[in-house]
Amino acid sequence: MVMIETKAERMVINMGPHHPSMHGVLRLIVTLDGENVVDCEPVLGYLHRSMEKIAENRTVTQYLPYVTRWDYLATMFTEAITVNAPERLADVNVPRRARYIRMIMLELSRIASHLLWLGTFVADIGAQTPFFYVFREREMIYDLFEAATGMRMMHNYFRIGGVAADLPYGWVEKCEDFCNYFFPKVDEYEKLISNNPIFRRRVEGLGTIGKDEAINWGLSGPMLRGSGVKWDLRKVDHYELYDELDWDVQWETSGDCLARYFVRVREMRESAKMILQCLKQLPGGAYENLEAQRVLGGPKSEWTGFDYQFIGKKPSPTFKVPKGEHYVRVEAPKGELGVYLIGEDSVFPWRFKIRPPGFVNLQVLPQLVRGMKLADIMAILGSIDIIMGEVDR
Amino acid sequence: MDNGIDLQQSLIEWLTGLNVAPGVAKAIWMPIPMIAMVLIVTVGALVCTWLERKISAAAQQRIGPEYAGPFGILIPFADVGKLLVKQDIIPAKADPVLFTMGPVVVFVSVFLCFLVVPFGENLVISNLGTGIFFIISISSLAPIGLLMAGYSSNNKYSLLGGLRAAAQSISYEIPLALAALAVAMMSNGLSTVDIVNQQAEYGILSWNIWRQPIGFVIFIIAALAECERMPFDLPEAEEELVAGYQTEYTGMKFALFYGGSYANLLLSGLLVSVLYLGGWELPFPIDKLAEVLNISPANSVWQVLAATVGIAVTLTKTYLFIFFAVLLRWTVPRVRIDQLLDLGWKFLLPVGLANLLITAALKLTFPGFFGG
Questions:
Q1: Which residues, other chains included, contact B339 with Cβ-Cβ below 8 Å and sequence gap of 6+?
Q2: Complex ipTM above 0.85?
């Protein structure tokens, strides 16, 4: 049979760096055939600030205030990895109380990051309203951060050997209140979004990536767990004291945008659950109790012991990164955030290679959007969850 | 017109009483309803923008406009003032003629439709015998304007937005027309006034929504798509096309698009109230009330009262629809273009056709209930 074929000229459209849904300054050069995406080429580097080079002539203490600009939505993780790398190289011991405080902060930060992701993801599909709901909850997390660290986003809270300050009076109770308030709110989001037929049709079966492919592309975080790989560095690497908590790795098998959505939403619940456990198990309990016990027990009491400190030993400004090299990673909300550190027994690291999860996860985008519709680019990009600050560094 | 107030007649009579020639008196009358209509529609559209801000604010746990007048009711005027004094930019490589004509075509076609929309028995500019047909045909001019705007802007987002607008309007015009046709079939006429009168007899029970539930749903979906409202606002999808065909527009040209889209929403609300919710009719027949109260329907005070109530009732029904549309916009995500076209062609069109056939069959079987 002879088919009459019409051939439309392809349109090359330049999305970004200024575009409402490019999450900052990502630029996509998209080739369109009508509404169908033929090709897509991401262009990076509009937010490149030489983060790694700058690290090479700063001491860790000097560099710490700057690292929160990598992933400015999951700030605690960037600080954690910057501190963990030299800490492990120098074999610095961290008190248990400090570790617990770190876990609380990390999980709060994970919730904040996932919340903002949820808002932007649903907004990318067209529903603007949930954005305001997630900001309501995120604001509370930032208030907690502000109370403990003095800053809402750029905390500079982690230190080699612990954290910068102990939890203030009443913080533990406030944090507990937040967690208990948070569970019904997640149910509320799910009620609004999860079963919305338009939402389901927009994301179900979209941007599917299989198990093997996800591993081969080097994906991590919810991208990997959404594709049926039960891989969470908190379980795999046993860092901090996550083993002392009772929690599960959230994962899905379908590998589409919906799976990633479910993984992240459930992770929020899981994180809140972990924070509640941490608050209960926090050595010494709330700061006021710990102080009272210290005063009561006198200078020789067990309460002045190492594990009840918020920091092991005040770090010296001339802390030397020992000779040696290693790779340290944490499970950030976006995936595996790692640092490859080479020390030269000098105050500056010789090399400070950052492995940002967003950068690695983003590379799969062109393959996922090819053959999809124009509107799917936003849904898929939203489900990858990138932050240009860490992609470009 | 046998009953109800006739403003035209009274004014002409009053003017001829002042020794003005009847022809001149008629000429004096002519621009009055037109200007009144343009003003009413503009104000109605401005109210819509205010409602949009306030309702979206409530949905998003915000306050919304607060300082411009009580509850921010002056914010639409501030908007218009801002747009009026804004620099009017025509992009260097755009086609200036088409670029200017685009918004004008859209705006005029929407406003022309209001010619046949009744606010009351005699509160309609022209009771055309082809009322609904007129609205459907004139409003289908709008996509031409959108296409013009999208094509002439010399911007790829605009072009895609214009094409989407055209595709969307064409696909949803047909279910819209089919739904309206079923109503027209029951009323034995296309005139908007006839359609309302036919729903008057038993108050709320005789409204078309009970006899045309499927048609009502089809009409609402198609009307939302015609207005380019969420979840069908693909032509101006912000996350995909920046602002679609409006991307390059500023100042008064943008205001024409903006006002036109809200006027279109108002028009859809009025059509829903006229076609399905009994127009200016109260949930109980107002003439029966006159009988109970022992007032002659010809009493002039009663007539003024009834006309006022009629306008209020029409507007209430209209803004109910608008409230629904606004709430929907801030609740649901956007559909994709292929899903939109699938819904239009593969679902609404066959269902609309079936609805039309069922209506015809029922009309033949039960002439009493379905307008014999």
A1: A201, A202
A2: no
